[in-house]
Design brief:
It is a single chain. This protein has 14 helices and 21 strands. The protein is an alpha/beta fold. The strands form five sheets. A seven-stranded mixed sheet has the order 10-9-8-11-12-15-14, sandwiched between helices. Strands 18-17-16-19-20-21 form a six-stranded mixed sheet. Strands 2-5-6-13 form a four-stranded antiparallel sheet, with no helix packed on it. Strand 5 and strand 6 form a beta hairpin. The protein starts with 9 loop residues before the first strand and ends with a strand. It binds thymidine-5'-phosphate. The site of thymidine-5'-phosphate has 17 residues, from helix 13.
Length: 416
């Protein structure tokens, strides 16, 4: 990326949670940084890495074997904004309500959000005049959070930040992190710091993609550089016990194609919900720790990528107009793994202002705003933002009305 020297890739050969040797799931090829969207005339980034997710069959934590250094992945250019979709805004409002319930009996609670991004979640705490703090290293996103009234600290959450938060604000009654913990490679340091910052009866709530849902859905494109880890209830139960916490609740949430909301507390502080045991039982009964199940996953992912390529080549030969929808990190993974580029897709539509006008990291596919007169010219759109399918189908209903079809590609290619 501009301004940064190529960083060496980091390599994980032992599970950071339990020390076992993980099982490689599959190689998804040599990939660029998944969100390294480039100006049309910009030199391609020199950062590449083999995308090789692996699963620890002892504790159920999935992790990337190789990954670029975190400062390279989450650079100044990092384009993600929590508030960009209604789906996410609504979801974070529900998460805020869940958090507020947990501190409802506290006289003057302190709520801390790790990875507050543009403040879409913490804004709900600020609006209620509760003591709160949003912490995030992304300068531009944090500036947006501050502008919407959130008290922010523009920094990474690490022991130094933890100590300064403790000194300035005291212990937190609630620490929340939505889609953040999976990004942080030093799990031990992070969880220990969270424990140190939490009151004796405080709650640590975090949400992360569910490895079990990913496996069931064959969503290979959820593995990418930003997701150092993909958690399961099985792994989080182990994680909590390893670092002096207890997993007391675990609820499915629909974000990112299927996530889990975990609630952790100090042992004995809260009574665990039966949902925790049930989630762990379901995961293990359906193959989370079974190497054959992961072989099936790898075969299905390879098959769907090949079918996607064959389908798009066939449609192109027939003269159809084909584009992508959603310049997501997932799109970079799927395009690179399936060997797709400008030959198959004219452009990728995306509503994010920061992405429009740039090109995809793989083969420089232009990213365009989905103006109706543009989208409706297409016969087929490949859905790369499949986690927002219901919202996008509503936004683009005219595309369907005009005879357009969506293409999805998990497990098998589906044109509908
Ligand atoms: P994400 O899956 O990484 O959160 O990215 C979703 C992308 O989808 C993001 O770049 C915005 C884009 N998007 C649209 O282009 N149109 C929409 O209606 C929605 C909801 C999202």
């Amino acid at each position: 990326m501009t301004g940064l020297p190529p960083a060496p890739n980091e390599c994980t050969i032992r599970c950071p949670l339990c020390g076992s040797a993980p099982l490689p799931i599959m190689s998804l090829g040599t990939q660029p940084l998944a969100q390294d969207f480039l100006l049309p005339d910009q030199a391609p980034s020199s950062v590449q890495y083999e995308l090789l997710p692996q699963i620890c069959l002892d504790c159920g934590l999935a992790q990337l074997r190789y990954r670029p250094a975190s400062a390279t992945v989450f650079s100044e250019k990092y384009p993600y904004r929590s508030g960009v979709s209604k789906t996410m805004r609504d979801h974070l409002q529900c998460l805020a309500e869940y958090c507020l319930d947990l501190v409802a009996d506290k006289p003057d609670p302190l709520l801390v959000e790790i990875g507050c991004n543009d403040g879409t979640l913490s804004r709900h705490f600020a609006e209620r005049h509760l003591r709160h703090l949003g912490i995030d290293p992304a300068r531009r996103a944090v500036a947006q959070a501050a502008a919407s009234g959130v008290t922010v600290l523009n920094a990474e959450f690490n022991p130094e930040t933890g100590r300064s938060v403790l000194a300035k604000y005291g212990k937190a009654d609630l620490i929340v992190a939505a889609n953040v913990i999976a990004h942080i490679s030093d799990l031990r340091r992070t969880i220990e710091q969270i424990c140190a910052c939490l009151t004796a009866d405080g709650s640590f709530v975090f949400e992360a993609i569910s490895l079990f849902e990913l496996m069931q859905r064959r969503a290979f494109d959820l593995f990418y550089d930003e997701h150092v880890y993909t958690f399961s209830a099985t792994a989080v139960d182990r994680l909590a016990r390893s670092y002096g916490l207890e997993l007391v609740d675990c609820q499915p949430v629909s974000t990112q194609g299927g996530s889990l909301r975990y609630s952790l507390a100090k042992p004995g502080a809260k009574s665990p919900s039966p949902r925790v045991r049930e989630a762990i039982r379901t995961e293990q009964a359906h193959g989370l720790l079974d190497p054959d199940a992961w072989n099936d996953f790898a075969a299905a992912a390879t098959h769907s990528a090949q079918s996607l390529r064959q389908t798009l080549d066939r449609l192109r030969r027939a003269g159809s107009a084909v584009a992508g929808y959603g310049a997501t990190a997932k799109s970079s993974v799927a395009l690179t793994f399936a060997g797709l580029g400008r030959k198959q897709l004219d452009c990728i539509f995306d509503t994010t202002p920061e992405k429009v006008g740039l090109t995809s990291p793989c083969d420089r596919i232009p990213i365009r705003f989905p103006a109706p007169d543009l989208v409706d010219r297409y016969d087929y759109l490949v859905m790369f933002a499949w986690n927002f399918l219901p919202e996008i189908e509503v936004r683009e209903r005219a595309f369907r009305t005009m005879g357009g079809k969506w293409i999805t590609y998990h497990g098998s290619v589906c044109i509908a």
